[in-house]
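Aim 2 progress update. The chain analyzed this quarter is reproduced below.
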Amino acid sequence: MKDLVIIGGAAPERLSLDMSAYSRIIAADSGYDTAKRLGIIPDTVVGDFDSTSFSSELAVAGYMPCTRDKDDTDAAIAIREARSDYDLVGGGEGRIDHTLSLFVAFRTIRPPRLWLMRSDSLVSFSGSVSFRAPFGTDISLIPLSVSTVRTEGLKWDMDGWKLSDSFISQSNRVERPFVRIEASGVVFLRFFPDDFHRVEFL
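Predicted structure tokens:
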């Protein structure tokens, strides 16, 4: 079982997730607003509640905000609260400092297995991953740290290329029905959400 973490920022209009796969649902601040919009009832809500529209409702429910003067963002607090592997919803199209701080949390705590935003769908892996996707599917490879990558089935295949903060594989494309990617470190595979629904992980 894994946890579901819902944070502020642009989230999908709908979720096609098996909610029974999650042991707990954790919302961070305005992630509570997103959860309500999606019809999801969190098991716990964390953060300073400075961006939620339902701070009074949370107070009535017994949730106490933390101080705004803190080292961690609300999203990082929620990620720390996750006791196991987790999927992440939200975090898109917001403040750039918040987005960059998420990657700090991914490096210092742990990355999500799946990260769903309004305009992006990401899957993290290390070691190897294989999938089928329609010809021409757009894919970017974003490393969490320096990672040696080998690919089969992409338009611009990589054989021992090093991805890092200064070099990512952006807007590559699926060229064959079967794709295999190996990475020495954690790498995010980024898809457009409409394409992501057509990807079959093997």
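DSSP finds five helices and twelve strands in the chain. The CA atoms of residues 35 and 41 lie 7 Å apart. These observations will guide the mutagenesis experiments scheduled for the next reporting period.
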